[in-house]
């Protein structure tokens, strides 16, 4: 990939022997992205740089990117990529990568992945995605797990349905969790979890997480609290025996949800104290957001709708700020389900259903979830 040549007089761009004439703002946008290639810019930042002193909407950026992609699609080696939850970046696939010695520096790659692991543990999705998006510019090789996880945390169902390079057993796990987390849990969802576990096809770490954490939460949400409670001691045992420190706080937050759904309100108070102490030591945003929402549900159960709404909104906002798109969708689904099953409240049900509808539109859930369900059925039939 050689460089692009820009001719401002006629808004033309040349690559090799090929020339394309653009509209003025298409030209300005492409030039800005090219001058800052491999850097991610939000729509707001692009509006500020390309449309200064004007008042277009964010959709303007999307429309211009769409037209640029159409006009430049025959130029291999150049692409304007969407970085979900962040914005856009222009990427040139060229030999520059070989000039970055850090690519072959084990210490540099270990340092970057240590940072990624920490961001993951702390629930800082936005930080993790920002670092992962700068792979080419910073000169490191993103390992396969984080390449997948970056898509997962953004609820990027389309990518998982189209990706061909992930082993079948690996992608089965991620697709199952995407389906579970983006809509209401039903008996069918629980059955899918059980079917996946019964195949024995999952890699051991994924099988352990599904069996000891995810399926318990699915059971709680489906109203099978007694069954979840019966499985919980074994989960505690394994977490302690195998030293699974990363599971300790998520399991404690899950136990809050279980006690709430089972109506054990006195037990909930004890769990609140325990989790709040843990959050002081382990300030994980993902768990803090979820815990705040569950505390809101408890206030609703106690008849304090005003405080409940405040806490639920705060929890959703924590997940949003942390870049936890998938967890935010899951949390809204859980609020709606809890209201329907335990604390009917017409105004709040309407409010959170409207929030889910917006998330549905933004993530194309109504279109992609049926495809995901069909994919899962086919995958399980062929395992």
Automatic annotation (TrEMBL):
Residues annotated as transmembrane: none
Write down the superkingdom of origin: Bacteria
Q: Which PROSITE patterns match?
A: OMPR_PHOB
Keyword annotations from UniProtKB, A to Z: DNA-binding, Phosphoprotein, Transcription, Transcription regulation, Two-component regulatory system
User: What is any Pfam family matched here?
Assistant: Trans_reg_C
Q: Give a yes or no for keyword Transport in this entry.
A: no
Q: Where is the OmpR/PhoB-type domain?
A: 1-92
Residue numbers of the DNA-binding region are 1-92
Q: What is this protein called?
A: Winged helix-turn-helix domain-containing protein
